[in-house]
């Protein structure tokens, strides 16, 4: 029969209790994020905190930046260099049935000049005019404005001096057949204006008589589908 020594038993129990207390304290410290001292804010680097730190490390941030700014970034849209296949003269005829400034986008065509639109038949004629202009001057024709929606007409009418814009709903821009040129055309004595006056009619574009009135608008040109091509 083995007799257990009372002192040794108590000593072993004390050691075991100390070890368990230490393990529990370490586990609680890692879970709570605080040390044993209630007044201390020193964090204990437990497994969860280490994983979180790794997730927010500079290496991870760099990877996220590469994903946002690298090959996955969407390229900017570019203006067309020639009339899209969907742009045809029949669309221009359909566009003429709609109220001023309310032409559906499907009947408008994008121009080589970014973010500018014209009625389909006017756009097709402008592409030809622009090509001839580019052969002569070495650059695309400069445009400031083309089709204006009714909302844009109202915005300009309210923000510009009286008489500088047509009453909303009555603008030739709202029909998709007017364009405001720049790049020299805005000055009547310039080579660009002279070339346009001599050649625009071949493509159905002209400088209307009212543009010589008050206010004088050398930059304002219009398309007339009835003029056709006179080469």
Task: Give a quick rundown of the structure.
It is built from 7 helices and 6 strands. It has 231 residues and is α+β, with helices and mostly antiparallel strands.
Tags for this entry?
single chain; 231 residues; alpha+beta; Muramoyl-pentapeptide Carboxypeptidase, domain 2; two-stranded antiparallel sheet; 8% strand; globular; disordered N terminus
The level of helicity is: 25-40%
Q: What series of H and E elements makes up the topology?
A: HHHHEEHEHEHEE
Gross morphology is globular
Q: Which whole number gives the mean pLDDT?
A: 74
Radius of gyration from CA coordinates:
38 Å
Give the tally of β-strands. 6
Which strand order spans the largest sheet, edge to edge or round the barrel?
3-4-6-5
Structural commentary:
The protein has 231 residues and is of the alpha+beta class. The chain has a domain at 89-223: Muramoyl-pentapeptide Carboxypeptidase, domain 2, CATH 3.30.1380. Helices cover 40% and strands 8% of the residues. It has helices at residues 6-32, 47-55, 58-69, 89-95, 120-137, 150-159, 191-199; strands spanning 108-110, 117-119, 143-145, 178-181, 205-206, 220-223. A four-stranded antiparallel sheet has the order 3-4-6-5. Strands 1-2 form a two-stranded antiparallel sheet. Strand 1 (108-110) and strand 2 (117-119) form a beta hairpin. The protein is globular. The relative contact order is 0.09. Residues 1-77 have low confidence and may be disordered.
């Amino acid at each position: 029969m083995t007799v257990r020594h009372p002192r040794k038993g108590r000593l072993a129990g004390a050691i075991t209790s100390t070890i368990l207390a230490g393990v529990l304290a370490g586990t609680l410290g890692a879970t709570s994020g605080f040390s044993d001292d209630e007044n201390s804010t020193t964090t204990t680097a437990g497994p969860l905190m280490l994983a979180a730190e790794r997730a927010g490390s500079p290496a991870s941030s760099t990877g996220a930046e590469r994903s946002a700014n690298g090959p996955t970034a969407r390229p900017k849209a570019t203006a067309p260099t020639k009339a899209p296949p969907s742009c045809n003269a029949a669309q221009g005829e359909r566009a003429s049935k709609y109220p001023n400034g309310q032409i559906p986008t499907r009947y408008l065509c994008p121009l080589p000049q970014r973010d500018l639109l014209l009625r389909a038949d006017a756009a097709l004629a402008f592409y030809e005019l622009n090509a001839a202009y580019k052969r002569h001057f070495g650059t695309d024709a400069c445009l400031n404005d083309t089709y204006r929606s009714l909302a844009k007409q109202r915005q300009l009418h309210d923000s510009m001096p009286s008489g500088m814009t047509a009453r909303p709903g009555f603008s030739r821009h709202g029909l998709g057949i007017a364009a405001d040129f720049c790049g020299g055309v805005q000055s009547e004595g310039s080579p660009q204006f002279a070339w346009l006056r001599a050649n625009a009619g071949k493509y159905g574009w002209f400088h209307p008589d009212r543009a010589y009135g008050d206010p004088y608008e050398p930059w304002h040109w219009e398309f007339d589908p009835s003029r056709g091509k006179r080469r």
